Amino acid sequence: MNGQSLKLALLGCFLCLATVGCKDAPGKPKLESEALRPDQVLDFPTLYRQNCAACHGENGKNGAAISLANPVYLSMVGGDTIQRFTAAGIPGSLMPAFSKGAGGMLTDRQIGVPRAWHGRDVGTSRCNRRCATASVRKQLSR
């Protein structure tokens, strides 16, 4: 094997290794490992964990603030009210405003996420809310 053939063989090996070996090169960030900007997070469990769980408890129960997994509470306030409370807070209480327009950190789009999940991922089903609503109406009519 002469010098020219050896150089071509080495070049071929190098090119082969470079194209195959660089796909998962150590230190090269993977697309899924890139973090979203905080204002791009639209995942309810993540938003709840980062903004609500400290006061309302994990899964909406056993927190210092009102239980968001309480079917009676959910049936009485509804999604519009929860969205308004999330955005502007509740004056005279410890519930802060989370909307950027009111001094918080969440975008209008993020404020709408809990309304879309109203009662789902905090341990309450629609049936429970309907049953609770009927129960509350029955008690109030007495």
List the helices and strands and how they pair.
Layout lengths: L2 H19 L22 H8 L1 H4 L14 H18 L19 H9 L9 H15 L2
Helix pairs in contact: 4-5, 4-6
Description:
The protein is mainly alpha-helical. It has a single domain (40-140), classed as Cytochrome c-like domain (Cytochrome Bc1 Complex, Chain D, domain 2, Orthogonal Bundle), CATH 1.10.760.10. It has six helices and no strands. Helix 4 (71-88) packs antiparallel against helix 5 and helix 4 packs across helix 6. The relative contact order is 0.12.
Unreliable residue stretches: 123-129, 135-142
> How would a textbook summarize the main sheet?
none
The total beta strand count reads 0
Helix content: 40-55%
- What is the CATH superfamily label? Cytochrome c-like domain
Number of domains: 1
CATH class: Mainly Alpha
* Radius of gyration from the alpha-carbon trace, in angstroms: 27 Å
Q: Averaging pLDDT over every residue, what do you get? A: 78
Q: What is the H/E string?
A: HHHHHH
Counting helices, strands and paired strands, the structural category is mainly alpha
Counting H and I runs of at least 4 residues, what is the number of helices?
6
Distance between the termini: 102 Å
